[in-house]
Structure to design on (423 residues):
């Protein structure tokens, strides 16, 4: 299998060196790659689940522990969430058939927006159709040719894309490095508008942005601060309110964006902040104005999950507890999980071949996780990305740890990882 996977990875690398080929040639070569991947049963993406009940799922008839999902609070199958979605369809139908600007706004939108703003300690909030569109619409609405946007190098793709779609000038600072950010801000002319954008929790590494230091730098240089809490809502903060709440800096962060598609068990997203900024985004956020409104069922499902988050804060503590137990077990074995402090636990492996091999072995052992390989990361930065959820029980976590122990010993990785950890 290793030899065949090596052949596959060489094909992948060759494909990414075809910049001088026309699109049809590249598409044909890519099709050959997909065929080879399928023959080797080594294609990890677009896996069609037969069933998904949160902590467990069924894939190709095999029951697996789901540790590749962002369903952090385990609410996607909660009776209240399902009931809310069904009732919304019965009341409002299946679609708004228009944008928020025109016929796509319900009183349900406005009531939910008020609840979000109140929960986050902000004046107002605005709901978009997807989390991706939140960052696109927010950043493009607020920027112009006289704007410089400062981004952490590991920010989510939606922020990179938003800046590339705007007229703003992007500047990237070192990951989690407020000093690097400060130096970049100092070099920027005083008459330029400055916007700093960062994830609250970084989606691959599971580490948390140093918001206290970032806030100080932003205040010193009069920069607007936007924090994307896609992975932090429901997982960080005393009430699960996100990274800003985790540090007690909700008022200091100018705009908070997030998605409904993770802890809140639906699709859609929001931006929250001062009412004047939100009202401006409402009228200039093109990804909202020119996109159909979130469906009533998805809106109602997210709102129901949002209410459960507030009514059952023990779910936040449980997902944190599960993450800590799994992370500690992996570290004790000798796996390199980096500085993660959240339900996202990366296993840093380095090369694509090892990562795909372990993904397949773990899946065969009944543990579903996500491999992240080139070109999503550099060729030497491949990793396995594990996600814990509140509905994982001790048995789930122990079965996952047992599987990692077996594959680690089989491929002689535990000693190697332990050696790396020891320097």
């Amino acid at each position: 299998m290793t030899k065949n996977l090596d052949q596959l990875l060489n094909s992948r690398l060759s494909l990414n060196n075809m910049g001088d080929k026309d699109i049809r040639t590249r598409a044909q070569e890519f099709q050959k790659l997909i065929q080879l991947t399928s023959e080797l049963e080594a294609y990890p993406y677009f896996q069609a689940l037969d069933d998904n009940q949160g902590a467990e799922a069924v894939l190709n008839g095999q029951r697996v522990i789901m540790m590749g999902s962002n369903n952090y609070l385990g609410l996607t199958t909660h009776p209240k969430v399902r009931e809310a979605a069904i009732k919304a369809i019965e009341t409002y139908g299946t679609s708004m058939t228009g944008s928020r600007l025109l016929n796509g706004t319900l009183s349900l939108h406005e009531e939910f927006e008020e609840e979000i703003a109140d929960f986050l300690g902000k004046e107002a909030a605005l709901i978009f159709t997807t989390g991706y569109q939140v960052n696109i619409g927010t950043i493009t609405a607020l920027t112009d040719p006289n704007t410089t946007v400062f981004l952490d190098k590991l920010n989510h793709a939606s922020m990179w894309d938003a800046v590339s779609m705007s007229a703003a000038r992007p500047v990237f600072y070192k990951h989690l490095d407020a000093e690097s950010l400060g130096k970049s801000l100092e070099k920027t002319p005083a008459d330029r508008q400055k916007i700093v954008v960062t994830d609250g929790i970084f989606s691959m590494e599971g580490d948390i942005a140093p918001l206290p230091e970032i806030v100080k730098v932003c205040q010193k240089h009069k920069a607007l601060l936007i924090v994307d809490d896609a992975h932090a809502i429901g997982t960080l903060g005393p009430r699960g309110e996100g990274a800003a709440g985790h540090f007690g800096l909700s008022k200091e962060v100018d705009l908070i964006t997030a998605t409904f598609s993770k802890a809140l068990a639906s699709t859609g997203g929001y931006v929250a902040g001062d009412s004047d900024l939100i009202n401006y985004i409402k009228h200039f956020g093109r990804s909202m104005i020119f996109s159909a409104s979130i469906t009533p069922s998805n809106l109602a499902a997210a709102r129901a999950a949002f209410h459960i988050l507030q009514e059952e804060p023990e779910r936040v503590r449980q997902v944190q507890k599960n993450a800590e137990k799994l992370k500690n077990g992996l570290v004790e074995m000798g796996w390199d999980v980096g500085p993660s402090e959240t339900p996202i636990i990366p296993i840093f492996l380095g090369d694509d071949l090892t990562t795909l091999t372990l993904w397949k072995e773990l899946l065969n052992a009944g543990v579903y996780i996500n491999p992240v390989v080139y070109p999503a990361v550099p060729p030497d930065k491949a990793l396995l990305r594990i996600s814990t959820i509140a509905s994982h029980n001790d048995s789930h976590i122990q079965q996952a740890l047992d599987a990692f122990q077996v594959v680690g010993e089989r491929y002689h990785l535990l000693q190697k990882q332990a050696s790396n950890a020891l320097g």
